[in-house]
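User: Sequence in, structure out. Go.
Assistant: Echoing your sequence, followed by the structure tokens.
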Amino acid sequence: MISSVSNGKVKRVAALGKKASYRRETGLFVVEGPKMAAELGRDEVESVYMTESFLKSREEAGERFRSLGCAETVTDEVMKAMADTKTPQGILAVARQRQYEMKDILKSRGKLHLIILETLQDPGNLGTIMRTAEAAGVSGILMDRGSADVYSPKVIRSTMGAIFRMPFVYVQDLEDALKEIKQAKVRLYAAHLEGARDYDKEDYTGHTGFLIGNEAKGLSPGITSMADVRVKIPMAGKTESLNAAVAASVFMFEAARQRRNL
């Protein structure tokens, strides 16, 4: 049993939770809680840490993770030192990051339904968008390097498991990536306050990509110019705009609604 918070393994796990650079360097990330950990494939798990209290209360689950051959027991104090949450659930796993390429997203069956994010920096927004994207049948998510780290603990929790089922890719040059997407006959819609069209007046039954910008600044002029259409969500009252994740959800489910009627 690991009982010291100064243990090298404990410090390593804590660093993975706090430092995006360390996650990128190692290709690892931390998953907390039995439900999320159970979503991992056996070949994805690098190590598992469980408390004695978890093993006593969840004996069957504990044995399943022990069978992986990489599980260790830790004290409650050590678990708190490793975990990102204030009240850990008694288990966390260190897992290998999944790697996707653009071709993995563009080869999706049926008509493409893409979400493209430019410098979306709030982890909660990214996690919510990923969770909603799965529910709305999105083919994949494309992000620039200025966007939040999808493997941060807050993003992972916000996805509620969707991170294990929704393909995503980061790109170095978003404009180049959009050119490739347009070559795949995807029609791009920019979410924009100066949109020429209300979002619900467009046809999203073909290959569709929604461009969602930074929470404070929106889409940059360069990325906006690559859209085929600028669309807006009509507002009542004095509200000028919606939260990025909420706006993205509106677009995604409008596309999903239209496609259900085919």
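User: And one key feature?
Assistant: The chain has twelve helices and eleven strands.
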